[in-house]
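Ticket #4471: structure export looks truncated?
Reporter: QA, pipeline team
Priority: medium

Steps to reproduce: submit the single chain below to the structure queue and open the exported record.
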Amino acid sequence: MNSDNKRILSGMRATSPKLHLGNYEGALRNWVDLQNKGYEMFCMVADWHSLTTMSENSGEIGHNSIEITKDYIAAGLNPEKSAIFIQSHVKEHAELHLLFSMMTPLGWLERTPTYKEKKAEIEGAEREPYGLLGYPVLQTSDILLYRPYGVPVGRDQAPHLEIGNDIGQRFNRLYKTEIFPTYKYLIPEDETRAKLPGLDMRKMSKSYDNGINLSDTAEETAKKIKTAYTTPTKIKMDDPGIPEGCAVCQYLKVYSPDWQTQWEEDRQGLRGCSKNKNECIEAVNEYFRPMRERRAQLADGDVLEILNKGAERAREVACATMVEVRVAMGLLA
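Actual output as written to the record:
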């Protein structure tokens, strides 16, 4: 399909001030590609969603939001092409969430993968908050408010968004309208990069503290890669390696143009782990050097101005949607 004027919504939670390479390869890189293909991007920093696990330290969310926005822009999102905004700056997200919550069956929410996963994140709390159960409803509101053509998502994350189309179609049936179209899941054709592991070969995660951050310096990146997991049976240089199970080799595959030769030499025991790490450090730092330079130019004041302008653009679309929603429901304007 022609990508002209095709609207797309996506976002990330502000639970940390730092996005890592997993966030970049799993989502942000795809957003930039879609932007450059001519899609109308609405890129949100989900500060309200962060409260499901940060209600007791909410004071950090504002700072986190600014830092995440810097990563968005450094990675290539262009504020002139894409609306970059804070979720809570567009109050229509909350209004649509409230209205959807009145017509979403409780059983749908209890069965969602999102609820089960987020519940595990807050273990130790006396009880999970209401907002955790309603997380998918707010997420649906975030998406359908913009009536997008599609939502960028990894294949393993698509089930988290299925309830959104269900809620939208239920609204259409109840109120005999066609306000909310069914959105598509925009899954990257090559998901190899999206599955980039952490330094310890587990999933790259903020909670595991096993990632390389977009905001890390070249020196910090080098220090982390030097401690990264390699083939445990490769003790001597001429021992054969298993690049599929080596974090350093996984990064070489993504960031080094010579990865096939490097992998083959590793497999045959023609190179040691130190050489792999040194070449990996060089490749990763060179790839992210332009992003770091762009990030260094961004002052907090500039970021706030970008977020304000992005919210203005988002509110124009959100307000138009809510006018139609209120009319369909028979609510007074």
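Status: closed, not a bug. The export was complete when the record was re-opened. Leaving a note from the reviewer for reference: DSSP finds 14 helices and five strands in the chain.
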